């Protein structure tokens, strides 16, 4: 049982550090402290988040987890369909925004990336397609592998994604103003085809 508490704590630490390092007030302070080197902040932030995420996944894989129920093979294969769809959605989003979101664009000074409001593609159906794809894949994989440790992971990531999305919505409203508010009125936040 202690291992599950540690796992929950690690996901809490991930969410807390991820939110802190993305907070505007924190980035403003770091920008003043780092000076011209602040341009590398997003890249360092991404590498830190990736390292922490890999650490948590490795820890979770080492836990001897309890299966909550037995899933017949046919249902496991059926649950694999939305899992695959979620991975495809994630792949499309990561490919589209990789340079900007990862911070790797700082290593390619000739390739300019700027923040812009995107309402086309997957964003026509949901305002945060990457988060939707992530949650779809996570919960579908849970149906394939219904383990207690993985349930903790799914719940932790879902709660963090929901809270983080609400904070991100506020930042996007500040950044894009009336255009984003109009977008909010016409496109659902996390679940497509639902207002």
UniProtKB/TrEMBL annotation:
Cited Pfam families: NnrU (PF07298)
Provide one Gene Ontology biological process annotation: methylation
Q: Which residues form the NnrU domain?
A: 9-184
- Where is it found, in Gene Ontology cellular component terms? membrane
Q: Where is the signal peptide?
A: none
The membrane-spanning stretches of this chain are: 43-61, 73-98, 130-163
Q: Tell me if Methyltransferase is a UniProt keyword of this record.
A: yes
Keywords of this protein's UniProt record, alphabetized? Answer: Membrane, Methyltransferase, Transferase, Transmembrane, Transmembrane helix
Q: What is this protein called?
A: Isoprenylcysteine carboxylmethyltransferase family protein
Origin species: Paraflavitalea soli
């Amino acid at each position: 049982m202690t291992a599950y508490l540690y796992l929950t704590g690690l996901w809490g630490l991930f969410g807390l550090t991820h939110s802190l390092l993305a907070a505007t007030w924190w980035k403003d302070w770091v920008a003043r402290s780092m000076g011209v080197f602040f341009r590398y902040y997003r890249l360092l932030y991404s590498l830190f988040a990736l390292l922490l995420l890999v650490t948590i996944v490795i820890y979770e894989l080492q836990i001897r987890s309890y299966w909550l129920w037995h899933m017949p093979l046919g249902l496991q294969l059926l649950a694999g369909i939305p899992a695959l769809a979620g991975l495809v959605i994630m792949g499309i989003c990561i490919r589209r925004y990789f340079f900007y979101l990862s911070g790797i664009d700082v290593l390619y000074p000739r390739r300019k990336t700027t923040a812009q409001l995107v309402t086309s593609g997957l964003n026509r159906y949901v305002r945060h397609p990457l988060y939707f794809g992530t949650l779809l894949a996570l919960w579908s994989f849970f149906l394939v592998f219904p383990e207690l440790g993985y349930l903790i992971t799914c719940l932790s990531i879902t709660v963090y994604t929901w809270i983080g999305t609400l904070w991100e919505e506020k930042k996007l409203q500040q950044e894009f103003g009336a255009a984003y508010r109009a977008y909010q009125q016409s496109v659902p936040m996390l679940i497509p085809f639902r207002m």
